[in-house]
Design a protein that fits this description.
Length: about 450
């Protein structure tokens, strides 16, 4: 009788959830500009590795749902995310708060219209290629959500954590302030959270794993489409488990780079090391996750530092082409009597029972935010992702804002934003995080 009780107990725990996976090939079928490096002056020249959109759908015992979508892309701008959210709600009655859209931030993926488009001098034909790709992408992302929901079946969800090995803080002190380089003493988050999804029979169906490191092993000299280290990590895991789906979640890696970097061999090496760490975590003791599932989504406004029309009239005469582009955008806004004073910023939370919370933040988020949120919300498993639901610019902490450098200042030129944030940027963001945590029942 005791053995019978134990045998029955395992399915009862596992039945807390249903889970389903979906995947769709989003590799461009024609030459297209690859995003992330302004030094590129021509479109792609082939495919090193297919890129994918993948989805994990989760449903608890009461029918509450959430879908996490990962993409091998530089980032999704808010208009695309909103379009996908509206389509998903229309098709599947899934509310915006139940849908997470995360990008791996590969710099070897296609430009997505509305994200860093002003980084390149494009011909009308090249612009059309980007627009056509983006329009098709929106429907593909809605399709992959439907595929995951259609695959829902009883599942067991478990979590464990590993340790990465190749991320290094890139904010190096220099005579002129801070430059992009190597800073071994700087903060970095080497956590590799791993969620295992298996059937009630224990068979592996897939994994969701994350890392906080810029997906930039490959440089501007590479013109072949790929997912960089994150793509190679997923491919390596799936090669070892042919009937599984591996999904990569980009965490708060805006101020960390792979080290070393610069070649395809190194991208494959980093991907293999990450996949190996995921395997190691799965071979150890994992903690079972349980329901219920809660979700919340909120837009807040992050204010920019004050600026005037004269600021950009002066900048328009700068010999730097990128500054001229930014100045033209800002002056056009002044002409419309709508100068850019702030940006809408998404914060999202998904919580499973009292064991795991996923916080999904928009933009290129520096590691300080993950470290602060982890400190303020101890006790349960916590995953803090960046690059989610909108990638509108870098999101510096107050510390980094005061230090200056690329993440605080120069990057805003390429994103077409007016300049650095106001000094309350961290307070505004964290206030919204606290609001989201309260709504999903997570206390400090």
């Amino acid at each position: 009788m005791k053995l019978l009780f134990l045998f029955c107990a395992v399915p009862l725990i596992a039945a807390d959830f249903k889970a389903g996976f979906g995947r769709i090939n989003i590799t461009p079928t024609q030459p297209i500009y690859l995003s992330g490096y302004a030094a590129r002056k021509k479109p792609s020249e082939g495919v090193l590795q297919k890129i994918w959109a993948k989805a994990l759908a989760i449903e608890d015992a009461k029918g509450n749902r959430a879908v996490i979508v990962t993409t091998d892309l530089i980032g999704l701008p808010r208009p695309v995310a909103d379009r996908v959210g509206a389509e998903v709600e229309k098709r599947y009655r899934l509310r915006r708060q139940q849908l997470v859209l995360n990008s791996s931030h590969t710099h070897s993926g296609p430009v997505v219209h509305g994200n860093l488009t002003s980084m390149f001098e494009l011909t009308p034909e090249q612009r059309r290629a980007i627009t056509d790709y983006t329009q098709a992408l929106s429907m593909q992302l809605a399709d992959v959500v439907g595929a995951a929901l259609g695959d829902l079946q009883p599942a067991r969800l478990e979590i464990g954590h590993g340790v990465g090995s190749f991320a290094i803080n890139r904010r190096q002190a220099a005579a002129s302030g801070v430059k992009i380089g190597l800073n071994p003493g700087g903060p970095v988050n080497q956590d590799v959270p791993v969620i295992r999804v298996s059937g009630l029979n224990g068979q592996l169906r897939g994994v969701l794993f994350g890392y906080a490191c810029h997906n930039t092993t490959l440089g501007a000299d590479v013109f072949n489409v790929s997912g960089d280290y994150a793509g190679f990590a997923q491919a390596a895991f799936e090669a070892a488990h042919p009937n599984s789906t591996a999904m990569f979640l980009m965490l708060t890696g805006a101020d960390a780079n792979p080290n070393p970097r610069g070649t395809v061999a190194l991208a494959e090496q980093h991907g293999a090391s990450l996949a190996k760490e995921v395997e190691r975590v799965l071979s150890g003791k994992l903690e079972a996750l349980s329901g219920p599932l809660r979700s919340a989504f909120q837009l807040t406004e992050l204010a920019f530092a004050p600026h005037t029309r004269e600021t950009f009239e002066t900048e328009s005469k700068d010999p730097n082409w990128f500054k001229q582009q930014r100045a033209a955008t800002m002056l056009a806004a002044y002409d419309r009597r709508a100068p850019v004073r702030s940006v809408a910023y998404p914060v999202q939370g998904i919580r499973l029972g009292k064991s795991l919370t996923l916080v999904a933040l928009g933009g290129e988020v520096v590691v300080d935010y993950a470290l602060r949120i982890q400190k303020e919300y101890p006790g349960e498993h916590l995953i803090v992702a960046g690059y989610s639901n909108d990638v509108m610019c870098y999101i510096p902490s107050l510390r980094i804002l005061k230090e200056g450098g690329y993440e605080a200042n120069e990057s805003m030129i390429y994103y077409g934003q007016p300049g650095p944030f106001a000094e309350d940027v961290e307070d505004r963001l964290m206030k919204t995080v606290h609001s989201i945590m309260t709504r999903i029942g997570r206390k400090r």
